[in-house]
């Protein structure tokens, strides 16, 4: 497969796969609805990209057209590919194609999988195993969401459970971070989510590494003999004596009661120590020396939009985070409030009407933990609005600490007028709310 066309090439998952294909030597074309830094990055690496979707512009040389779940079946480029007899793949099928030439280590779970994937990637990269990596966020150490290395035999892949596509993957080993009631727009019930993870676990050939703090996961693997658990207690690997200082987290690691070293990561939140512990377990199982593992975690460069420091100005710190589920936001705010800022200001953009509707009360409860909450309109991600579900209603339920702003310009102006020295501003959400942080940094 040499000529590959991506519809929505600027998307988080699609751009990573496109970059892998570019580095693999494929001719990559694509389309997206708007210009972005990601689109420019791919163009600079040789991708030919058009803005807007137009079936007439679909290259006749395309061997396969790749789309994501966000792309509708009536997309003009999908129609053109059908009419021309060009192969059409969901992006998961492209990832599956890549797994056929590599030994694949998959990272799955409701929360923390992107950070964990990136930690695994940095460890294996420092160990000079030449990994190919498909991640759901920008790998800071590389500059893109995806890496292809022809010298290596390993693929480290973040697997997407949101649409069930992770069930297509046959992986050698897997880390599962947790299970939660997210993506109910697809699964409808948590029971269906659990069934999907049970099937995924059955597809793992070798090591199943699970967060032992998750009781649902423990039940799913109780009859398996190739399971390794990690967590804070009653697990094969535990992390203890946790200390949070400034932007670093430390904890002592034990394997079946024996001390093996101390994790020291430049990320807040005890949940990130769990992510690091999961990455450590996989690396140890695959023969990476402890010295390399601990050094890699100590110098971890991070992942885009996961507690990414946008900048500081006039004593105000701006941080961007992809958190879009109440549990993720809770962990984010808990970590942020431990730093000693005078105020934590949450600038939140709800993601999807279905998620906002199904988890409305949970969103209200966790957002109240911020000192001030500025809420933007719901980022629809292509969904049809649900009557009675809106950001205004969310603000009304939050109470006196909540403020609704109709657009990013209003949000930035409000921050200019109200933010003070020693405030921490967090832009939160899976949409384009990250733009507010950069605009605010320029305007303050």
Question: Which terms would index this structure?
Answer:
single chain; 444 residues; alpha/beta; Rossmann fold; Protein-Tyrosine Phosphatase, Chain A; 3 domains; 10-stranded mixed β-sheet; 6-stranded mixed β-sheet; 16 helices; 35% helix
Which whole number gives the mean pLDDT?
96
Low-confidence spans: pLDDT under 50, at least 5 residues?
none
CATH topology of the largest domain: UDP-N-acetylmuramoyl-L-alanine:D-glutamate ligase
Lateral strand order in the biggest sheet: 8-7-9-6-10-11-12-13-14-15
What is the total domain count?
Answer: 3
Annotated CATH homologous superfamily of the largest domain: Mur-like, catalytic domain
Structure description:
The protein has helices at 12-24, 37-44, 76-84, 91-99, 113-126, 184-187, 190-202, 215-220, 270-285, 290-298, 326-337, 353-358, 360-367, 391-398, 408-418, 434-443, and strands at residues 3-7, 27-32, 48-51, 64-67, 87-90, 103-108, 132-139, 144-147, 154-158, 173-176, 208-211, 227-231, 237-245, 248-255, 258-265, 308-313, 316-321, 343-348, 372-375, 402-404, 423-428. By secondary structure, it is an alpha/beta fold. The chain folds into three domains: 3-91, NAD(P)-binding Rossmann-like Domain (Rossmann fold); 101-298, UDP-N-acetylmuramoyl-L-alanine:D-glutamate ligase (3-Layer(aba) Sandwich), CATH 3.40.1190.10; 308-443, Alpha-Beta Complex (Protein-Tyrosine Phosphatase, Chain A). The strands form three sheets. Strands 8-7-9-6-10-11-12-13-14-15 form a ten-stranded mixed β-sheet, sandwiched between helices. The chain has a six-stranded mixed β-sheet with strand order 16-17-21-18-19-20, sandwiched between helices. Strands 3-2-1-4-5 form a five-stranded parallel β-sheet, with helices on both faces. It starts with a strand and ends with a helix. The mean pLDDT is 96.
């Amino acid at each position: 497969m040499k000529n590959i066309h991506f519809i929505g090439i600027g998307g988080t998952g699609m751009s990573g796969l496109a970059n892998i294909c570019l580095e693999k030597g494929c001719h990559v074309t694509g389309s997206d609805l708007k210009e972005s830094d990601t689109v420019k990055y791919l163009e600079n690496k040789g991708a030919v990209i058009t803005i807007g979707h137009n079936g007439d512009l679909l290259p006749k040389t395309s061997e396969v057209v790749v789309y994501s779940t966000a792309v509708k079946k009536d997309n003009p480029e999908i129609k053109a590919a059908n009419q021309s007899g060009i192969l059409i793949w969901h992006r998961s099928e492209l990832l599956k194609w890549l797994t056929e030439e590599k030994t694949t280590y998959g990272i799955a779970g409701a929360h923390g999988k992107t950070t964990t994937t990136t930690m695994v990637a940095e460890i294996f990269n420092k160990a000079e195993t030449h990994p190919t990596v498909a991640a759901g966020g920008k790998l800071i150490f590389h500059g893109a969401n995806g890496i292809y290395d022809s010298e290596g035999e390993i693929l480290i892949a973040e697997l997407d459970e949101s649409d069930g596509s992770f069930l297509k993957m046959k992986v050698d080993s897997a880390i599962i971070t947790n299970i939660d009631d997210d993506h109910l727009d697809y699964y409808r019930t948590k029971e269906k989510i659990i069934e999907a993870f049970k099937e995924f676990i059955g597809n793992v050939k070798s090591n199943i590494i699970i967060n032992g703090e998750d009781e649902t996961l423990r039940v799913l693997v109780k009859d398996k003999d190739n399971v390794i658990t990690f967590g804070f207690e009653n697990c094969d690997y535990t992390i203890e004596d946790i200390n949070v200082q400034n932007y670093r987290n430390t904890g002592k690691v034990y394997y079946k009661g024996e001390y093996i070293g101390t994790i020291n990561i430049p990320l807040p939140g005890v949940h990130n120590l769990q992510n690091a512990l999961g990455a450590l377990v996989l690396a140890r199982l695959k023969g990476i020396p402890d010295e390399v593992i601990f050094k890699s975690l100590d110098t971890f460069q991070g992942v885009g939009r996961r507690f990414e420091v946008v900048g500081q100005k006039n004593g105000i710190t701006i941080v961007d985070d992809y958190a879009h589920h109440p549990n993720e936001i809770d962990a984010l705010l808990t970590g942020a409030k431990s730093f000693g800022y005078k105020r934590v200001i949450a600038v939140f953009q709800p993601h999807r009407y279905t998620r906002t509707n199904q988890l409305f009360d949970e969103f209200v409860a966790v957002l109240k933990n911020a000192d001030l909450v500025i809420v933007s309109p719901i980022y629809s991600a292509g969904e049809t609005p649900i009557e009675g579900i809106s950001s205004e209603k969310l603000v009304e339920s939050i109470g006196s600490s909540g403020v609704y702003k109709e657009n990013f310009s209003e949000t930035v102006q409000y921050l200019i007028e109200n933010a003070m020295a020693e405030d921490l501003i967090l832009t939160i959400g899976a949409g384009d709310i990250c733009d507010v942080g950069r605009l605010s940094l320029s305007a303050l």
